[in-house]
Amino acid sequence: MNEKSMEEAMKELLSMDNKTTYPKAKAAIDRYRVQNPGQTEFANVSKKNLLKFLENPEMVALRMYFATNEKNENTLVFVGIDASGENILNTKPTMAAKSSGPAIDGGTEDDVDDDSLMNEFQLYPPPPKPNNNL
User: Fold this and answer.
1) For residue 108, what are the CA distances in angstroms to 27, 35, 62, 112?
2) Is 132 domain-assigned?
3) 23-76 confidence digits (pLDDT tens)
4) Are the C-beta atoms of residues 67 and 77 closer than 8 Å to each other?
5) How wide is the angle at C-alpha 17 spanned by C-alphas 12 and 19, nearest 5°?
6) CA 87 to CA 71: how far, in whole Å?
7) How far apart are CA 97 and CA 118, in angstroms?
8) How many folded domains does the chain comprise?
């Protein structure tokens, strides 16, 4: 497989229409449920918190890392990314404002401002199953 440059990848990302159809979304969710029985199925985040997180004017997209929290539950970590494809990690004065590349490796716990990361979600392992037909 031919690797794309970060610039090419960002251009493609920003031109994508991320919408899908109900049948495709339902089929994808059903495949996940079959392949991952008993795992966390979804996570909720409030609109207020998400909009506050998205306020950074440098952010052109959102990177979502799959993660496992301290309770051993599958979750996500959201990080904003800028037009060059770099993680936006608001930092304390002790380091540069961005990490290099897509990894969360831009410094120590004491260097990165927690407001630049989002990971507090309401997680739902099955059951309960939401009443949203997906």
Assistant:
1) 40, 35, 22, 7
2) no
3) 899 999 999 989 988 888 888 888 888 888 888 888 899 888 888 888 887 788
4) yes
5) 145
6) 26
7) 17
8) 1
